[in-house]
Amino acid sequence: MKKLFTLTMLFxxxxxxxxxxxxxxxxxxxxxxxxxxxxxxxxxxDVDAIAPGxxxxxxxxxxxxxANVIASYEGEKAGFVADLVFGPRGxxxxxxxxxxxxxxxxxxxxxxxxxxxxxxxxxxxNFNTFLGYEVISPVANFNYSTSYLFSYGPFSHxxxxxxITLSDDFSLMLGVMNDTDLTEFNPDGSxxxxxxxxxVGQYLNLLMDTRFTEIxxxxxxxxxxxxxxxxxxxxxxxxxxxxxxxGVALYPQxxxxxxxTIGLRGEFFVEDGDFGAIGTGVEDSEVFALTLTGSxxxxxxxxxxxxxxxxxxDDAFMDNDLMPxxxxxxxxxxxxxxx
Length: 339
Known about the structure:
The radius of gyration is 23 Å and the shape is globular. The protein has helices at residues 2-23, 88-93, 148-151, and strands at 27-40, 61-74, 78-86, 107-117, 120-128, 156-165, 170-178, 191-199, 202-208, 212-222, 227-238, 243-255, 260-273, 286-298, 301-312, 317-318, 324-325, 327-338. The strands form 2 sheets. It has a 16-stranded antiparallel barrel. Strands 16-17 form a two-stranded antiparallel sheet. The protein is mostly beta strands. The protein contains 3 helices and 18 strands.
């Protein structure tokens, strides 16, 4: 009996120890790699300026995206995220860096956080923007090329933010940050302010920068078990009414099986004044873009064929004869592996 009692106590002690070991926070590594092939269908492919208004997936032929390595540590009360990027996509995402350090151009996000309570988390450091439907990582986007709304930014912020859970359905985020995309330090002593109000997966965002003010709505709804509709709408006004942009994009997506989904991004985008365009390159111009994307999953690999049609109100593109053109059609085949 004494031997049985001793064995029982050893079993209980080992079980408690195993639970403690399992609950102990640890460092985790995740990320992705991506590559793609891109070609214009109605324009030459030996001129790299002929491409849709996408921040990424705009190089000709076979091209690489980026290697994304994320180290994170999640404790009971605090943790951190170090998100590093290598490659053309990462370079385009962190276009303002390095400002000071020689390695600033590989830091996509770098922040620490404190779970003050169940309803309040404070985060300080460099984090990707809270505005918009699309993000920098290709893993979290359905379409591989990005929208005009995303490409016009903002991309990242450095500062302090508070995420507040108001109830099961409502949330609030408040932040004070350096001016947009100045990620390593503050060069001039000016600050921007951000806020996000969330309700059941729908988010109304406000960013007040020293150079502009932007209002953004991002959300989506499951129409059925297999059909999802996302939406993004934004309006940005530069200071002194020097210009800005307005845009709206819809993202209907239909899952035809466990491994394949097809989706369409329809976007209408208007640039006001001399905004310094990424896409159209013409003042007071409009563009309508349709992007049809298929997503086929094989374990951790996702293959995405994509057809994109951009139509502008002005001669924003060039055709096969290098003559001005209002439209551009292009094809992309992307491979994304996440781990």
